[in-house]
Amino acid sequence: MPISKQTIKLVKSTSPLLKERGEEVTTRMYQILFSKYPETEVLFRNANNQPTKLATAICAYAENIDKLENLSDAVEIMAQRHVNVEIQPKHYPMVADSLLTAMTEVLGADVITDEVLSAWGEAYNFLADVLKKREKELYDA
Ligand code: HEM
Questions:
Q1: Which atom belonging to ligand 1 lies closest to the Cα atom of 127?
Q2: Is the minimum distance from the CB of 44 to ligand 1 under 6 angstroms?
Q3: Domains of the chain in sequence order
Q4: Does 32 contact ligand 1 (Cβ within 6 A)?
Q5: Ligand 1 centroid to 33 CA: how many Å?
Q6: pLDDT tens per residue, range 55-99
Q7: Cβ 65 under 6 angstroms from ligand 1
Q8: Looking at ligand 1, which atom is closest to the CA of residue 33?
Q9: 43 and 85 in contact (C-beta within 8 Å)?
Q10: What is the distance of C-alpha 14 from the center of its chain?
Q11: Which residue from 61, 45, 42, 44 is spatially nearest to 103, judged by alpha carbons?
Q12: Is the minimum distance from the CB of 62 to ligand 1 under 6 angstroms?
């Protein structure tokens, strides 16, 4: 399913704010992830500057959600890193939950309205599907 026009508009509208405060969001996201889903922490044992990297990726996604071909190199790198540490499809909802919660907490419910939150949920799932598909190919190879 393609991403709806409304979702594209809402996600793009958060891109300036994410550029400014993305690292606060992703730093909080990891706190939530590791406390709510402690089994994920070990996956990050060799990761460096992960909040910065994830914030950069999320900003790039918000900006390029209507021109995803700009992201294909970045997606390939993410998929390869993920496969190296054996990220599985079951992990994706854990990150979604933590990320959406962190966005609302850090940016505020007046900015991250229910509408914006569900747009980000849809956008996250779209990107997650792209990553899972590529990761499956790499695992199968
Ligand atoms: C749409 C969702 C996701 C995005 C956008 C994303 C993005 C990224 C990015 C940008 C990197 C860094 C790549 C680099 O080193 O240049 C990365 C690495 C990593 N991601 Fe994700 N990720 C996602 C989902 C997940 C999930 C579900 C998990 C598991 C809980 C996960 C765990 C990791 C780990 C452990 C690394 C570091 C691997 C290493 O040690 O090199 N990611 N991810």
A1: 1
A2: yes
A3: 5-140 (1.10.490.10)
A4: no
A5: 13
A6: 999 999 999 999 999 999 999 999 999 999 999 999 999 999 999
A7: no
A8: 30
A9: yes
A10: 14
A11: 61
A12: no
- Containing 82, the helix (H) or strand (E) segment is helix 72-84
pTM over 0.70: yes
In one letter, which amino acid is 38? P
Catalytic residues: 92, 135
Rounded-to-10 torsion of CA 96, 50, 102, 99: -10
CA distance 97 to 56: 19
pLDDT tens track for 7-32:
999 999 999 999 999 999 999 999 99
Residue nearest to atom 20 of ligand 1 (CA): 82
Confidence band, pLDDT 50/70/90 cuts, at residue 1: confident
| Region of residue 86 (phi > 0: left; psi between -120 and 50: alpha; otherwise: beta) | left
Residue 115 has pLDDT above 90, yes or no: yes
Ligand 1 mean position, distance from CA 87 (Å)? 8
CA distance 86 to 139: 9
**Token representation of residue 48:** 């460096």
